[in-house]
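<amino_acid_chain>
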Amino acid sequence: MSNVVVVTETTAKVVIQSRGKKIAYWSVTLFLAAAVMLSGIGQLMQYGGNLELVKQLGYPSYVLTILGIWKVLGAIALVAPRFPRLKEWVHAGSFFLMTGAAISHAFADDYGVMILPLTYAALNITSWALRPESRKL
C-alpha cells in the first residue's frame, strides 16, 4: 500500500463593497421600505382614499388587508439582517405587486396613478441590483 497525500488549497474571496455603493443601497432600500411600510399601514387602516381606489379598480375591500399585511412584513424583511432568500422573495413579490398595480390602473384608464407604483418598482429593482454580497444567495 502506498501513502497518498492530498493537499487542498482554499482561498477566501473577499469582496469589499465600495462606500458609495453601500450608501446608495441603504438610501434606496430605506426609502423603499419606508414608502412600502407607510403604504401598507394606510391600506390596513383604509386611510387616504385607499378604499375608494380599490373599489374604483374593481377589487373587493378585503384586498386592502391582504396587501397591507404583505407590505408591512415585506418592509420589515428588507431591512432586517440575514435571510437572503426571504429578501429575494420580497423583491420579487414587490416587483409583481407594483407592476400589477400599474397594470390595474392602466386597465381602469387611470394612467396618472400608474407613475407611483412604477416608481416603487424601479426603486425595488435598484435596491435589488445594489444589494451587498451578504444579502445575495
User: Anything to note?
Assistant: The chain has a mean pLDDT of 90. The radius of gyration is 21 Å. The helical segments are 19-44, 50-57, 62-79, 84-107, 115-130.
